[in-house]
Amino acid sequence: MKNNITLAEKIYGSIGYTAPLVVVIVALSASGLLDPYLAYVASLWVIFGLLGMSLDLVWGRGGVLSLGQTAFYGLGGYFGSVVAINFSHLTGNSLIWALPTGAICGALTAAVIGYFIFYARTGPLQTTILTYTFTILLWTLSQSFKITIGDAKIGGDNGMANIPGMILGFGKDAQQLEPNAMFATVVLISAVIYFATRKLMSGPFGRIVDCIRIDGEKTELLGYDIRKYQLQNFMVAGAIAGLAGALFAAWSNYLNPSIFSVQEALMVPIYVLVGGAGTLSGAFIGAVLIGGLSFWLGGGTIGGQTTLILGLVLIVLVVFLKNGILGALDNLWLRFLPDRNKVVNSIQPVTIDSAVVENILTDAEIAAGPPKTLETRNAVKAFGGVVPVNEVSLKFEPGLPHSVIGPNGAGKSSFLKVCVGMYPPDSGKVLLGGEVVSHSPIFECVSKGLGVKNQKPQVFGELSIFENLWTAAYSMTRDKEKANRIADQILTMLGMHEQGDVEASALSHGQQQWLDIGMVLCLTPRTILFDEPAAGMTNEETRELSRLVRILAKKTTVLVVEHDMEFVRTLEGMVTVLHQGAFFAKGDIGELRADDRVLDIYLGRRKHVQSI
Length: 612
Prior knowledge:
Layout: H1 4-12, H2 18-30, H3 36-61, H4 69-91, H5 95-119, H6 124-144, E1 146-149, E2 152-155, H7 179-202, H8 204-214, H9 216-221, H10 226-252, H11 262-275, H12 282-301, H13 306-320, H14 324-334, H15 354-368, E3 374-383, E4 386-396, E5 402-405, H16 412-420, E6 427-432, E7 435-436, H17 442-447, E8 450-453, H18 465-477, H19 480-493, H20 509-522, E9 527-531, H21 539-555, E10 557-561, H22 565-571, E11 574-579, E12 582-587, H23 589-593, H24 596-603, H25 606-609
Parallel strand pairs: 5-10, 5-11, 8-9, 9-10
Antiparallel strand pairs: 1-2, 3-4, 3-6, 6-7, 11-12
Helix pairs in contact: 1-14, 2-7, 3-7, 3-10, 3-11, 3-12, 4-5, 4-10, 5-10, 8-10, 11-12, 11-14, 12-13, 15-21, 18-19, 18-20, 19-20, 21-22
């Protein structure tokens, strides 16, 4: 799925709503001119496009392949029909009963399934299998499930009949829509849902969902409850699928267990792939194209070889247009646009302006309060027989930078992950500002003032430099304008103000390190943890990083996990040595360099190591 969102946004950036709106207007204008039978069939293609869009939300945008969309679709159809059969006679209009019921049913079912998927932290493969299994179970159960609810009768294999058609009028004399009017109604309803969904996904919610797809761990380290966002996105998709199911039931006036079939479930991803994953509108293109081909081939044009020809066409589209039809159009479009990433070469080396950083820290203290201490008390973390964190009790306070050093395998990174919440301690405590956070989720620790920079730069490559910083700032402010101001401040500090539109993936390793540090500062953290932040930086960049850390430590608790003794020396702070997961020594770098025991564990000499 790489770059799907970026590609779609580039091609539709300035005309994002215009092009689909034109298509809708043309479709509505042509609705009265279509052959009634074609209008009737084309209505189904649009409904399938709506179903496909629901999958695009969780797959193209969320990165989770769900094969359960037809489950929500079918349940929405059945429940919406039950309500419509029993209550539409009160109003005449059937859709005001069926569509909300279908949407609610789809959303609630998705909430239950999504809770088990996301809060159990299942992997992508397990998620696909679980949703597929749920669909198969519904297909099996629906074949024998029989019940009568008021005037509605579900008859197992016999399905459900007498479902009210699409009725827009009110009163006893309201009539079911003719095929052409039905087509216009389906297009209009789908358009409303599409534009509402696009607006949602163009805002902060969509940005966060994109970030979760790109790097879920980093998104949580920015203070977002990624499981909550994944569940909400899944529920929105479930609601759209359920509504599409209710619309399908009104279109067909009949439902049977085939709505849950394997064939139906596997067709939905094809709609998305053909049109372009992550584009939202691509699902409609895929559904209409496949439906139109089937209609044309099924008319005997190719001598009855409908399935064979359709299959070959789909294979060609999926294999050669890897980003779908919209992706192919985008690649063509990009050839005529200037490369915005060229200006990455004009980014100057970062030069820390102490006055700018001091102002940022002053604003941060006003917004988030004073620095917070970080403390561990007898913290233990074991993995089987390996104990990378063994009864470690340390306390870090503001004023001077704190460094944790040690040879490879000393437990430095594991200790940091225990402090962050990535590795909940098996025993002992972790305290942030005096509050126990030993088993708090990562995003809660971040919201309480913790900022974390891991060794490997973690940036959202598909987003611009400014968008990376804005996403971090928005986590704490939940205000677009405030996030803009904070992101601008940090962008200026990094010397990248003129290159804010450059994609993060175009940056060098060192530039990505600085961007990652900038994202941490956007969080206005009161305690900052750096895991080998100088890795991959030039000597000049390392010197500036050292200056930044020393300035930060004046008004923030700063802990640096490092193995580069020379870099630690430049920090002029307190140093703690870990060895074999346990506390070994503490002091300034000069004292530790003169300690034979410390030299022994770094050089591998046995004289003192054996006595540990």
